[in-house]
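comment on this one:
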Amino acid sequence: MNASEAIAELKSLGFETWQTGGGCTALGLALPDNKEILVTDGEDGGGQPTEESTWLMVGLRDTDSGDEIECESRDFEASLARVRWLVEKFNPEPMTPGV
C-alpha cells in the first residue's frame, strides 16, 4: 500500500481536511461523544498526509478534556488498521469504506 491508497481509504471513511492552527492541516474525522481522529504526515511535523508521505501519525482526541493519544506507524496498513479500530470502537454506526 502506498500513501495515495491510504489517503483514498481515509477519505472513503469520511475523513476531511481540517485546519489545525498555524496554517497546518490534517485529515480529521469527528466521532460521537466528543472524540475525533486526526491523521498527519509522520515526517512533516504534523501536516496533512500527501502522496509523498512515507508514514503516518494517528491521533485520538477527546474534545471535552483535551486529552490526546498519538500513535505512529512506519507502515500504512498498520496505520489504517489502527484508524479502522478507533472508528469501530467509538462510532456506534458501522462504516463501510467507499460508501
Remarks:
- The helical segments are 3-12, 76-90.
- The mean pLDDT is 84.
